[in-house]
Specification:
alpha+beta; about 45% strand; 4 helices; about 140 residues; eight-stranded antiparallel β-sheet
Length: about 140
């Protein structure tokens, strides 16, 4: 059974008017999907009132803590010495969410205790993944 860790975090949603709104966020990492991290935002943060989970590369989170990183739907960059901004692009619009850098760093360190950096590929079951991709052929 794959180890999964969860960590609650406080974030600040930055509104289009420039105001900040506190948000509880759940950070998740699973050894079953060792290349990815998940961030789940509560329903009150979504336009349609449904909980939203973003999944993106663990390496992107690591890179974004030190310097601007990302492309496509997720961008991450440091904001001063103590904060990190995540920018999420969706068909419904754009969301800017600010986290305390230490909370994200703590989460990453805990994830590396589950699967060390560089050990992600060794932990993947490539045969199972190919079988799923090819529909059991």
């Amino acid at each position: 059974m794959a180890v999964t860790l969860e960590q609650p975090a406080r974030a600040r949603l930055i509104t289009p008017e420039g105001r900040e709104r506190a948000l509880p966020v759940t950070l998740r990492y699973s050894a079953a999907d060792p290349l990815a991290v998940q961030m789940t935002f509560p329903s009150q943060a979504a336009l349609d009132g449904v909980e939203v989970t973003w999944i993106f590369a663990r390496q992107l989170l690591e890179d974004g803590l030190a310097a601007p990183a990302g492309g496509g739907d997720v961008h991450i960059w440091p904001c001063g010495r103590a904060r990190t901004v995540l920018e999420f692009h969706a068909p419904q619009g754009l969301a800017l969410v600010q986290f305390d850098k230490l909370a994200l760093r703590r989460f990453l360190m805990r994830s590396y205790a589950v699967v060390p950096a560089g050990g992600e590929v060794a932990d993947l079951d490539l045969d199972l993944g190919l079988s799923r991709l090819l529909g059991g052929v």
